[in-house]
Amino acid sequence: MDVEYSSNGNGRILLTEDQNRAVRTTEGHVRVVAGAGSGKTRTLVARYSYLTITMGVPPSDILCMTFTNKAAQEMRTRIGAQTPGGAVGDFITTIHGFCVKFLREEIYRLGYPQNFLIFDPEDMKAVVKEVLEENGIERRSGIVGNYLEDLAVFKAATPYINRFVISTVQPLDVPVLGQIVLRQKRYFALDFDDLLFFTLHILNNYPEVRRRWQEQFQYVMVDEVQDCGRPEWELFTILSDFYHNLFIVGDGDQAIYEWRGAHPEIFVGYVPDTDIYLKENFRSVPNIVALADSIIGNNRNRLPRTSVTMRPSMGLRTKFYHCRNERQEAERLASTLMDIHKRLEWKGMAVLYRASYLSRSIEQALMAAKIPYIIWGGVRFFERREVKDALAYLRLVALDDDVAFKRIANVPSRKIGRKTMARLQAFSECRHCSLFAALKAGAAGSGAAAARFAALVEEARSDIGKVSISALLEQLLEKSGILEQYRIDTEEERLENLQELVKSVRLYEEDHKNEEDLSIQSYLQDVALYTNADYRKDDDHVKLMTIHQAKGLEYPLVWIYGLNEGIMPSHRTVRERGDAGLEEERRLMYVACTRAMDMLFFSDSEGFDVQNSLSKYPSRFIREAHDACGPLYDIVGRFSDELWKGTERLMSRLESPEPRAQGLRAGTIVKHPVFGAGTVLESDPDTGTVRVDFELFGIRRINVSMVLLTTDVSVSG
User: Fold this and answer.
1) pLDDT tens-digit profile of 39-83?
2) Which residues are tagged catalytic?
3) What is the DSSP letter of 309?
4) Buried (b) or exposed (e) across 263-293, using 16+ Cβ within 10 A?
5) With CB atoms 3.0 to 4.6 Å apart as the test, which of 247, 276, 391, 427 could cross-link to 438 if both were Cys?
6) Looking at residue 566, what DSSP letter applies?
C-alpha cells in the first residue's frame, strides 16, 4: 500500500508503508536495509523534510552523509524542492566533505592553517617521488604505488599524528613512510585518509570540541553504510552519541569495497533499536529481480530478504550468449546492440566487465560496427593534465604551494628545467622559504620568462577578492600562455576541457553565493574531493565500465561481458581471501545484475585466458541464476553440460585447505629471510597473510604459508 507523505513544502512524496515507517521513526538507532532500486534516496529526502517541516528541527541540526558529491547534490536539490524556500542545511555532504568542514574550524589545534591543502592521489605521487629521490630509492610508478598503499596501512595502524604531526621532536632516523608524512606537514597538506584521521584525532582528544559538535546535530543520517570502514563508523558513532539519534541506510548485498577497507559485517551485525526493510524494487522487471536474488541467495554472510518488484513484466527473459571465442563474443554484443538501437538510444546501454583488459575486444567490435561508446573509467575530468595544470595555477596564487609550483613553473615552457629547479630548491631550504619566493629572490637567475611568470602570479594575488574565482582563473589561463599553446598545437579537446573547468567554477560560485567563507581556498579544498561521478557529459554513447564503476547507476539495458570462471569470480580474489572473497565477488555479480532496468544479457566465450593462464569455462554465477523451475535465462549458442564440468574443475583448484597465519598477532616481532626484522601490524587467518612493518623495507604483506617468519628476534633484528 502506498502512503502519500504530505508537507507544507512545495511537493508531495509518494511512499510505501515501509518507507513511511522509516521517515517517521525519528528517535533512536534505526537501521534501514535498502535493496537495489528500493527508493532509498526518496526515503532520505522525505525523512529530512519530515524532520524540518513537521517536527521543526533546524536544518543546521541535521547531518546527512553520503558517499559521493553527486549523491549529496541530488539530495540537496530534491530536499530544496520539498521545503519552503528551499531550506537546506550545510551538512548534506559526503563523509570526507564533512571532515573538510570540521577541519576548517578545528585544524588549528594541530598547528595547521584553515586553508590547508588537500592532495589527491596524483599530488601524493609527487610527494612520494620527492622523498624516494632524497633517499636514493628508485621512483618507478610501481614502487610509488606500493609506497602509497603502504602509507595508507601505516596511517590506519599507527599513531602517526602523535609521532609525526604533533611532535616537535623527531628521531634522527625517520622511516620513509614517516618522511612522507613530514613532507605533507611541511606543505600543510592532507590526503583523503588524513581528513578522516585528523578529524577523529581532534574529536577523541579535545572533549570540549567533541561535545560541541555532538550537541550540534540532533539527527545523524548516513547512506551506503555497508561501504564504510571502521574509522567512518567511529566518526558517526561519536557524532550521534549525545542525542543517540542515528539513522543508517545500507545493503549488505551491495558491499563491494572490502578490498579498500570497507567492513560490511559491521552493518550486517549491527543491533539497532529499530530495523526496517525496504523490500520493494522500483527499478527492475520481475525476471531481473528474481535472477539477481537467486544468485545472491548463495551468500551466507547477509541479512536474508526477498525483493518484490513494483514493475510489471515486459515479457523479456535474460539471454546468456555462449560464444566459441572472444572475437565472436564481442561481435555478438555489437550486433545485438545494433538491433536494439532501433528502439533504444545508445545512452541507455551499458556494458559491464570484471576487469578493464576485457574492454579491448569490445572496443574493436564497437568501432567496426560504428557504434559510439565511451570508457566510463577513462581519465577523470579533474585528473586530466590540463585541468590539473589550471588548478595548480590557482593553488600557487592562493596558497604558495610548492607542489603546484613544481607542476606549472614550466607550463608552458619557461626554460625552468631540472638544474634551475635544483637551485630554487637549495635556496628555499637554506632560507626556509617557498620555491616561488626563491624565484622572486632571483635564485633562478634573471630569465625574462621566469620574471614574467613571477609577475603574473603577483598580479593575480593582488586581484584576489576583487574579481570572482572564475574570472581569476580565466585571467591566469590566458596570460600564462596555456590557452595560446593549445591553440597553436590545435589541441581542441584540451581547450574545451579548460572551458568546461571555468564553467564548473561559475556553477560552484552560484551554488555557494550565500556562504560567507567562499574563497579560492575553500573551492580548492572542495574540488579536491570531486570524482568522475561529479562531472560527466551525458552524450548519446554506449557506456563501457567495470562493475565497480557501475555502482549507483542504472540503465535500461545492461550487458555483463566475459562471465568466465576465474575472471568472474576472480580466482585471485578467492585465493587471497577465501570464502570472504568469493562472497564479495558474488555481491559484485549482484550489483551488476541490478543495474539493469528492462533488459539483461550475459556472455562468455571459450578459449584461453592469457591474463589468468586458464582455459575458459562459464562462470559458476551463471549456473546459480536458477530457481525451482530451471534457469532464469535463455541460452544462445552451442552449449553442453561438459562446459559445466570444466567450471567444476576450475572451482576444485580453489578448494585446497586454507592457509592459516601461524597465530601471529599484531605487535609480534618477526624476522623474514630477505626483509629482516619487522613488527606485525595485522594478521588475516582467512587468507594466511600478515602485514609487517619491516625496519628497512617498510610495510609488506606476507603469505605465511609460503615463507616462514621466525619470532625469536629482537627489535633491532
Assistant:
1) 988 999 999 989 998 899 999 999 999 877 778 888 888 888 777
2) 40-41, 223-224, 254, 595
3) E
4) bbebbbebeeeeebbbbbbebbbbbbbbbbb
5) 427
6) B
